[in-house]
UniProtKB/TrEMBL annotation:
Top-level taxonomic group: Bacteria
Protein name (Swiss-Prot/TrEMBL): Pyridoxal phosphate-dependent aminotransferase
Gene3D superfamilies, alphabetized: 3.90.1150.100, Type I PLP-dependent aspartate aminotransferase-like (Major domain)
GO molecular function: kynurenine-oxoglutarate transaminase activity; pyridoxal phosphate binding
Signal sequence coordinates: none
Keyword annotations of the record: Aminotransferase, Pyridoxal phosphate, Transferase
InterPro entries for this protein: Aminotransferase_I/II_large, Kynurenine-oxoglutarate_AT, PyrdxlP-dep_Trfase, PyrdxlP-dep_Trfase_major
Cofactor(s) required for function per UniProt: pyridoxal 5'-phosphate
GO cellular component, one term: cytoplasm
Aminotransferase class I/classII large domain span: 62-414
Lineage: Bacteria, Pseudomonadati, Bacteroidota, Bacteroidia, Bacteroidales
Length: 438
């Protein structure tokens, strides 16, 4: 056997870290075990578990924060709705790169997209009595289901793998027609599969959202990172695909974490359609004893209770990064294209040694290369593959924890380094030798 770590050691560390079942471990559990194994042995892991940015934070944002502190903004509470400069920049940014009109008042800064979805789940499931469930188009971000557990909100889900293109309509309608779905959630590009919903699919989602009065929460954490297309040129097509072209029932979540590598400062945007922002809901008015108008209630009666507003300096940082992107002084797509190069090289190593890409196609083309990809290996379930890879010094998460019905693991490219490619090659060569294909 050519394992880097013995099964006994991996099991012992998992027990020490209080991980009951490594095959179904969360991202945090895998991170703990991998870090402890590195600490005990000094042997580096190929870290494909946590989707944390692996590039330097944007310097323009850093300098803007410093200047904001020097101006004295740290002495005052930021407005709940956000600073004017960021709201205006957000509106222009959405127009420049998505070609959608959203007014500044409807663009709300949040402490990361996690906070945006947490607050949106509350607002969406309380606005209409009887509409109290969330539907996940999976695979998806596991933390969002954890949020619903905290809130006591029920959810439904389905794996989109077998429902791409027109079959998506009937599948979605089978849930929405019941009348209890308040919101539909997905990420595009997708975490963990890196599939991208195409315009035809977004049109289906938008039409059904309008028909059944459902709000679409579109997580664009990996904004413009479908590198197969020339996205990211301000005010020039192609523009980023979005459900916002096909319905007024939407909240777009745009985060600085990946596109500006600004994860540590926790800043994102919840961009609410103007029509939804201004819609009055009696149930919200009764619960919060306010106007019941969606936007103001979302901001003042829900989001402010969660975060008390975003740190002022990070708002000025994001405003500056958005403005510089609009003017062309920042090319944020090229700044993060390194993820595409990493994915291509990593996928090649894995497929050369018997692995397959689980989610390998969109409707009309092969899935692109970017921040994430998915891996399967013949004869192994996702949980089994996760465990086996750990013994070869490679950490990942099982697709089963993301709502997927497919067997495999999610791989993240963000922490890959140049000196680790030959290490990965050597370890996967050993993996294949120890797991011969029939």
């Amino acid at each position: 056997m050519s394992r880097v770590f013995s099964e006994e050691l991996v099991n012992s560390v998992a027990k020490e870290m209080k991980v009951a079942d490594l095959a179904n471990a969360t991202i945090g559990d895998v991170l703990l075990v991998a870090s402890r194994l590195e600490e005990l042995t000094g042997i580096p892991f190929i870290r494909m578990d946590q989707g944390s940015p692996g590039l330097p934070a944007n310097k323009i944002g850093i300098e803007a924060e410093k200047k904001a502190l020097d101006r004295g903004v740290g002495s005052q509470y930021p407005a709940a709705a956000g600073v004017a400069e960021l709201k205006q920049a957000a509106s222009r940014f959405v127009k420049a790169f998505i070609d959608i009109d959203i007014s500044p008042r409807s663009c709300l800064p949040t402490t990361g997209s996690v906070a945006a979805s947490f607050g949106a789940f509350i607002a969406c499931t309380q606005r209409i009595p009887g509409k109290n469930k969330v539907l996940f188009i999976d695979p998806g971000f596991p933390i969002q289901k954890s949020q619903l557990r905290i809130l006591g909100i029920e959810w439904e889900l389905f794996d989109i793998h077998d429902f791409r293109g027109e079959p998506l309509r009937a599948k979605l309608e089978s849930f929405l027609s019941k009348g209890d779905i308040a919101a539909v959630v997905y990420s595009n590009p997708n975490n963990p599969a890196w599939i991208c919903l195409e315009e035809s699919e977004l049109k289906i989602i938008g039409e059904l959202a309008t028909q059944y009065d459902v709000i679409v929460l579109e997580d664009q954490a990996y904004f413009c990172m479908d590198f197969r297309h020339a996205f990211g040129r301000p005010y020039q097509p192609p523009f980023v695909p979005t459900v916002a072209r096909y319905t007024d029932n939407y909240i777009l979540m745009l985060s600085a974490s990946k596109i500006f590598s600004y994860a540590g400062q926790r800043i994102a945007l919840a961009c609410v359609s103007d029509k939804l922002f201004d819609t009055q809901y009696p149930a919200l008015a009764a619960r919060y004893e306010d106007s019941g108008v969606f936007g103001p209630t979302f901001i003042a009666s829900i989001m402010y209770m969660i975060t008390s507003g975003c740190t002022a300096t990070t708002q000025y940082a994001m405003a500056e990064m958005l403005e510089k992107s609009i003017s062309g002084e920042i090319n944020f797509v090229e700044d993060v294209r390194e993820y595409e190069r990493r994915a291509r090289r990593m996928k090649q190593i894995f497929t050369d040694h018997g692995f397959s890409i689980v989610y390998d196609k969109d409707v009309t083309q092969q899935v692109g290369d970017g921040f994430f990809f998915t891996l399967g290996y013949p004869g192994l379930t996702g949980g089994e593959l996760l465990r086996e890879l750990m013994m070869y010094g490679v950490s990942s998460i099982s697709l089963s924890t993301t709502g997927s019905e497919q067997q495999g693991v999610r791989a993240c490219t963000s922490r890959m380094r140049e000196e680790l490619y030959p290490v990965l090659e050597e370890r996967m060569k050993a993996f294949q030798a120890d797991h011969p294909l029939k």
